[in-house]
Amino acid sequence: MFSIQFPLRIGSTHSHHKEHHSCHSKTGSQKRNRKIIMAATINDTTNQEYDRSKEVRQFDDSKIGVKGLIDSGITSIPKFFIHSAETLSDLKPKRSSRLPDSESNLIPTIDISGLEDSNRRSAVVDKVGRACREFGFFQVVNHGVPLEVLDRTIGAIKGFHELPTEEKMRWYRREMGTGVSFLSNVDLFHSKAASWRDTLQMTLGPNLPELEEIPGVCRDELVDWNQYAKQLGEVLMELLCEGLGLNAGKLKDLTFLDARTMAAHYYPYCPQPDLTVGIMSHTDPGVLTVLLQDQIGGLQVKHGEDWVDVKPVPGAIVINVGDILQILSNNEYKSNEHRVLANGCQEPRISIAIFFNPLKRDNLFGPFPELISPEKPAVYREFVYTDYIKRFFTKELDGKSLTNYYKL
Ligand code: OGA
Ligand code: NI
């Protein structure tokens, strides 16, 4: 059924790690680094007649996603998934001499229970504010969402991606017309190299799609998770505002709770995790992202010249600042670059991102006037969200944040 040829067979079949927590061990990727550079060089210079756009189109037309490629029994990845030497050499840690543990838990995990108590609340606001200024990322625990809701949601998304291919294909589309779409690589036709993941996208707010449009295998779970995520989003927006010294309701008033979209990713086993990535380095567009991840790991955040792991913490939810919040906060909070390594574990990795965007897209957005002073002049000009999101979706997810575009 699937006719892509795999002309490039480099390196040996990667040995599979069975254990879940050490799949992305640093020493492993260091050892493999020489092979990567070689492979990428070959990729750049050989095979003149390789018709990349045809292969990409065929892959998209097949509607099977990367999960389907793996199921078809491939042992090396198609050439259009191989990233540039530059990207691949950056997959290895830079300061390898450092003790791994000194960097291993840099991203803070914050207990957000007991916010009714004003002392406790200001301590939490302080932690959240600091995490947003330094990393733009943190995890929350004791967030009030029952742990079985988290597990059921992740399980349901796994269930969707593991439906028989023929059945799953029915949702394969690049347009979000019905509010639900299954696809591989949102930026497949804009990127220089494809990444090793499939995604189920869904509009969550202001309204869910018609219930019958949502795949039955994850319908109830997503309806539930959407409710909880919206509640959590509200609490977080308050904390984020307070961390900037603003009224708690500011972000909500700008309708950032109301337009939510979901990207539920499946990162299947990749036979050559050193030649590709799970998701390319990028920043998130909206104001805030709420992310559920399972225990496999692979999400990394840029910190100086290094990449630090966002280690899976059981029961925790990952939160990160998006471009719009960096702009609104006039660079106080950081919309940080992040990426996911290709998954070298046999076990697939599942993650579910919810992006909070403004419902009122034609309003002007720019740095909050309260945060502008002669000492801290506005760093960005005002813009309408419609313009911003159009730019976002016609570029590749390549780490070059759009915030620069609006810089004064
Ligand atoms: C995203 C994203 C991270 C992950 O969807 O924007 O960064 O862990 N996902 O899947
Ligand atoms: Ni992201």
TrEMBL record:
Domain annotation Fe2OG dioxygenase: ranges: 255-358
Could you tell me where the Basic residues compositional bias lies?
14-32
InterPro entries from the entry?
A: DIOX_N (IPR026992), IPNS-like_FE2OG_OXY (IPR044861), IPNS-like_sf (IPR027443), Oxoglu/Fe-dep_dioxygenase_dom (IPR005123)
Q: Which domain of life is it from?
A: Eukaryota
* One family name in Pfam for this protein: DIOX_N
Keyword field = Iron, Metal-binding, Oxidoreductase
Among its keywords, does the record have Transmembrane helix?
A: no
Region annotated Disordered, chain positions: 10-32
Molecular function terms from GO: dioxygenase activity; metal ion binding
PANTHER family referenced in this protein's UniProt entry, alphabetically: OS06G0255100 PROTEIN, OXIDOREDUCTASE, 2OG-FE II OXYGENASE FAMILY PROTEIN
The similarity comment for this entry is:
Belongs to the iron/ascorbate-dependent oxidoreductase family.
By what name is this protein known?
A: OXIDOREDUCTASE 2OG-FE II OXYGENASE FAMILY PROTEIN
Question: Which species is listed as the source?
Answer: Salix koriyanagi
